[in-house]
Design brief:
Rossmann fold, binds magnesium ion, 4-stranded parallel beta sheet, 15 strands, binds threonylcarbamoyladenylate, DHBP synthase, 11-stranded mixed beta sheet
């Protein structure tokens, strides 16, 4: 087991010495190291088994600090940052040469966000370097929303410490945006919803990036067991001689053992479903009595759109 606790000062010391700490955020746990230290960044790529063309998000605690690492901070980006930070949105900004090319996979852009978690903000305040922190899971596996998940992905010796703040409150990753020619481009939908962005973009227009940016691989966020998405009754008929588990939105089904089903929310709350999403995938992936997971899309608005993006990316039926 990786050493786990609530000792922020210990975490700060490890990070200053070039070590790796799993940090809590409101979205998912991050595998953090000094973003300016190439040796530490290399180690993060290596233990995650992440390809070098998939850049790492950087975290700090203030816009003022970010300005030390970017060529400019466009006005439109500042409106979004002021509105949503600390919070689950990441902004792509043109980097200066203090940020190593390794951290951004040779992109001229660096991804920055200020996370909304008191332990992690306290750490970031004490550091004069940003923390590179991709989600603390093996490449393509389920994102971690609890220290136990980090322990399932990594061994003692790979990660020096897990800073424990229990379950993540939002439970899916940040929304990633960039700004180009008066256009706000959404690269990944996450904790901040499309509707919230629309309300706060000022004079910008909005567009969803359909092209794949590095790192937006087709199969992602996936359990080891296969996930099939669609109408549960139909899928059940197709797979009924297999041992089936179901990831249910707000109701269970009577044709399968109750123990093999996990409910995302009892009161049809998309926020609750988001918080429970990865947690439930970890549970289903660990159940011995099932071979495959059936699920269906959740209502496609607000954070439901972000959940549906993750369902699409972890399932077979693209
Ligand atoms: O909520 C989150 O964003 C979490 C927490 C820990 O902050 N982090 C996270 O990191 O989800 P990760 O690495 O699992 O996902 C970040 C995504 C990747 O798909 C990566 O390709 C993209 O952000 N990204 C990072 N830097 C980028 C850059 N410079 N240009 C384009 N995409 C970038
Ligand atoms: Mg990830």
């Amino acid at each position: 087991m990786i050493e786990t606790g609530k000792n922020s000062n210990y975490a700060i010391k490890i990070l200053m010495d070039g070590g790796i700490v799993a940090i809590p955020t409101e979205t998912v746990y991050g595998l953090a190291c000094n973003a300016l230290d190439e040796e530490a960044v290399n180690k993060v790529f290596k233990i995650k088994k992440r390809p070098k063309n998939d850049p790492l998000i950087c975290h700090t605690d203030s816009i003022k600090k970010i300005k030390k690492f970017v060529l400019n901070f466009p006005k439109d980006a500042e409106i979004i940052a002021e509105k949503f930070w600390p919070g689950p949105i990441t902004i792509l900004l043109k980097k200066n040469n203090i940020i190593p090319d390794l951290t951004t996979s040779n992109s001229e852009y660096v991804a920055f966000r200020i996370p909304d978690n008191k332990f992690t903000l306290n750490i970031l305040k004490e550091l004069d370097f940003p923390l590179a922190a991709p989600s603390a899971n093996k490449f393509e596996y389920i994102s971690p929303t609890h220290p136990d998940h980090v322990n399932l992905n990594f061994n003692k010796g790979e990660v020096d410490y897990i800073l424990d703040d229990g379950n993540c409150s939002i439970g899916i990753e940040s929304t990633i945006v960039s700004f180009e020619n008066n256009e706000l481009i959404i690269h990944r939908l996450g904790g901040i919803t499309y509707e919230e962005i629309i309300k706060n973009i000022g004079k910008c227009s909005i567009k969803e990036n359909k092209k794949k940016i590095p790192g937006q691989f087709k199969k992602h966020y996936s359990p080891n067991k296969r996930v099939y998405v669609g109408k549960i009754n139909k899928l059940y008929n197709k797979f009924k001689n297999k041992k089936i588990g179901i990831l249910c939105f707000d109701k269970k089904y009577d044709f399968i053992d109750e123990k093999c089903q996990i409910l995302l929310t009892e009161n049809s709350s998309l926020e609750e479903a988001s918080k429970n999403f990865y947690l439930s995938l970890y549970k289903l992936d660990s159940l011995n009595d099932i071979d495959l997971i059936l699920t269906s899309y959740v209502p496609n608005f607000s954070i439901g759109r972000s959940i549906n993006d993750r369902i699409r990316k972890c399932s077979e039926n693209e």
